[in-house]
Amino acid sequence: KMATAAGAAAAAGLWSEVNRCGQNGDFARALKSVNKILQINKDDVTALQCKVVCLIQNGNFKEALGVINTHTKVLTSDVIAFEKAYCEYRLNRIESALKTIQSASQQTDKLKELYGQVLYRLERYDDCLAAYRDLIRNSQDEYEEERKTNLSAVVAAQSTWEKVVPEDLGLREATYELCYNSACALIGQGKLNEAMKKLQKAEELCRQSLSEDSDVTEEDIEAELAIIHGQMAYIMQLQGRTEDALQLYNQIIKLKPTDVGLLAVIANNIITINKDQNVFDSKKKVKLTNAEGVEHKLSKKQLQAIEFNKALLAMYTNQADQCRKLSASLQSQSPEHLLPVLIQAAQLCREKQHAKAVGLLQDFADQHPANAAEIKLTMAQLKIAQGSVTKACMILRSIEELQHKPGMVSALVTMYSHEEDIDSAIEVFTQAIQWYQQYQASQTRGANPKSPVHLSLIREAANFKLKHGRKKEAISDLEELWKQNPKDVHTLAQLISAYSLVDPEKAKVLSKHLPSSDTMSLKVDVDALENSHGATYVRKKAGKLTGDNQQKEPGQGEVKKKKKKKKGKLPKNYDPKVTPDPERWLPMRERSYYRGRKKGKKKDQVGKGTQGSTTTGSSELDASRTASSPPTSPRPGSGAAVSATSNVIPPRHQKPAGAPATKKKQQQKKKKGAKGGW
């Protein structure tokens, strides 16, 4: 009995210690006291609960969950449901947390709050929105602002990932978190300018709220603003302002924020800006997307986009095996998604395996008919790149849902025309026109009004047939157009032109419907039009024959106005007494007095024999200098030889007798200049 009493007294003291430490927030010391209590009574439910809470407060979620699982008989789901679900949530076991919450017999407010968080992580946004609405409606405490923030985050996620137009919740955007979430919702709707204004307001509110705390430094404020600046940069990127976006992204990375999710998103966006350029930088940035815990911070679509970009980066860096591995993994995760198959096909094309790429795309189109249209467009593009235009046309015509579209019709007609297959081009027009006829008949219950697109196709078909000499085939189209609009003179003229070769009598009958020339004459002042500012041709008016300008008698001469000629510029050393050189317009080599370049004296003295030999008598031994040697043939265009001993010094445009001296001076100047350069 005395031992029992002593134990009870010790337990009471320990409980007092636990209570005091809990109020002070010293959960480490509280845990020590709780462990001592459990040594006295290992199945004490309250002590076990306190131990779990202390472990959670210290961040030891795994150990806390271990305590719960080892004492399931004592710690039943009714007693510890919230703590168990919270530990599972923090350990990223989201599905387990959901089961724990749903299996609890009583749904407390705490469980409902956690339920909303779990649904958000599971991306079940509709259920999450309903849960938070219920919480806001039935709760009145100091956490109302946080619940509204979470509610706005759900709406933003719906707008971004599910493309749902968000409803106006009537939330007063008094905090920067609410402004930020509102901006994200606007980005999802494509309202980028409005979103940027919201983000600027969020930045201003964030600075105001944090600057009120004296303990917060400027670095802390910048770290908190990093996520807002990240969204600003994303908007700039969407608007095409890639340089500004890249600058802001790099500023955020330099801050080294602790949010691995934010860093991963920014790194991914930088990689998308770099594309196939600046690959070294992209390989550095991709490491940020592999940080621990990233998969728990981002949505499934964000993670998927990052994986796609990794595969593309592997392709751009010529890592073919890595690219195939990543794209195959993505395809196994999302078999119906287009991008993994397109990446594989692109990699095969880089390896010059076009046929294999087309086969891969064809297999995917057969397995997933819903996505066949986009795949077949890619196949057609590959066929065109190979020069197989006809095969590309066959692939395009197999896309039934696009056959009647004006863009598809135009593309097919252009390609068939390029291949000079006019019959196939006309067949494309015919099929498209028939589709519109059937569609409109089903929509208007037998009535036959023509839509603008339908009429446009008929007109294009008629013009195409006329252009390629198929006037007989164009007649039915032109008659249909004229029937729809009898006042269309242009169509009537085309119809008459077509009939003139086929049925001239019919052409004459139709020509009666043409308006008369009087009704078609335009009241235009020709003189005023010709004298207008933009006229390129002005008709000269015929002058009246008066006494002054009448034809003059044969002996009378006509006075012509002489044009003033500008005096040509003369050389500076021009001498009027000296006759100009008659050959001054010919190139120097073609002038009669040109004798080629003069060799320097030093060059003649250089010995051409072995070392030590003399050049004496070399001129005597030179056969070319003897009188018996035949003269060299003159250059084309050369005339008689001119004596080089003339004492007359002509101007610059005459014989260049003084040229060598001038050239020598220039060479001396160049040598002097060269000395100064070293």
Automatic annotation (TrEMBL):
Extent of Low complexity compositional bias: 607-641
The coiled-coil segments of this chain are: 94-149
Endoplasmic reticulum in keyword set: yes
Q: Which Gene3D superfamilies does UniProt cross-reference here?
A: Tetratricopeptide repeat domain
InterPro entries (alphabetical) = Signal_recog_part_SRP72_RNA-bd, SRP72, SRP72_TPR-like, TPR-like_helical_dom_sf, TPR_rpt
Domain Signal recognition particle SRP72 subunit RNA-binding, first and last residues per copy? 540-596
Q: Where is this region: Disordered?
A: 539-678
Keywords in UniProt for this one?
A: Acetylation, Coiled coil, Cytoplasm, Endoplasmic reticulum, Isopeptide bond, Phosphoprotein, Repeat, Ribonucleoprotein, Signal recognition particle, TPR repeat, Ubl conjugation
Compositional bias of type Basic and acidic residues: which residue ranges? Answer: 572-593
Main location as per UniProt: cytoplasm
| Superkingdom of origin organism | Eukaryota
Q: From the UniProt record, list the TPR repeat ranges.
A: 226-259
Mention any one GO cellular component term assigned to this protein in its UniProt record: signal recognition particle, endoplasmic reticulum targeting
Cell compartment(s), UniProt: Cytoplasm; Endoplasmic reticulum
Q: Which example biological process does GO assign this protein?
A: SRP-dependent cotranslational protein targeting to membrane
Which intervals carry biased composition (Basic residues)?
560-570, 662-678
Q: Name one GO molecular function term.
A: ribosome binding
Q: What protein family does this chain belong to?
A: Belongs to the SRP72 family.
Q: Which PANTHER family match?
A: SIGNAL RECOGNITION PARTICLE 72 (PTHR14094), SIGNAL RECOGNITION PARTICLE SUBUNIT SRP72 (PTHR14094:SF9)
Q: What does this protein do?
A: Component of the signal recognition particle (SRP) complex, a ribonucleoprotein complex that mediates the cotranslational targeting of secretory and membrane proteins to the endoplasmic reticulum (ER). The SRP complex interacts with the signal sequence in nascent secretory and membrane proteins and directs them to the membrane of the ER. The SRP complex targets the ribosome-nascent chain complex to the SRP receptor (SR), which is anchored in the ER, where SR compaction and GTPase rearrangement drive cotranslational protein translocation into the ER.
Task: Write down what this protein is called.
Answer: Signal recognition particle subunit SRP72
Q: What is the lineage of its organism?
A: Eukaryota, Metazoa, Chordata, Craniata, Vertebrata
